[in-house]
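Researcher: Go.
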Amino acid sequence: MKILLIAVPLLSISIGAVVWVKLHGYWRPGNGPQYDPKHVSPVPDSPLRGKVLFCLGSSVTAGMASGGISFVDYLRAMDGCRIIQETASASTLADRGPKSYLRRLRANPATREPVDLFLCQLSTNDATFRSELGKVSDSRDPKDFDTKTTVGGMEAIIDFARRTWNCPIVFFTGTRYDNPRYHYLVNQLLELEEKWGITVIDLWHDRAMNQISPQEYRLYMNDGVHPTKAGYLLWWTPAIQRQLYHMFLKETEAPAGES
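Model: Structure:
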């Protein structure tokens, strides 16, 4: 009996440790030191250099399965921009508690300083934790947004960021995985793009992004949601960079007919 009382807790601890290691991507080939941000080279004349980006997200933006390194760190290293990173794992766009996207955004001290671009992750947690998803409203009045729903939370975030910084607003999605609820949110986000004039970096529907080989996928992803360091560096960051570069270069282009 004494042996059993000792063995059961030890087994539970061992199983928990294995789950923890798997969840956080330890010893995954894609998390090798060769993919660390310190090994990347700066991008000459990056249009992001010197810009201030506010990045709001959850575990994907925090780099939960890649040793705390995400695309944010590669943008800093390559593009010389300052990124204010507001992340909390397991948080939702729907306002379900103190760690929700909306509450953290409103409380962040950076709301009192200038920001050149607001970048927000379309969280998978709302799909996983079965938030009420909601739908795009017919109004632009914040009082009409049902922030207890995911889409209502997104609308409140867009409105708040616009009123606070009056800067470009960008949302990015995850790459494709088997979750119809998240797919619904991606499509709702595309409707918000049309309604609000924001930019969506749609990795979910990006055919080229989703045509990688099974071997590449195993290197790039720890699971269906969370990239490894290699996944951020070689797969997600270039896609995000392309869109952000295009936005800032477009701002600096001279009108037609001007030299």
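Model: The longest helix spans residues 229-252.
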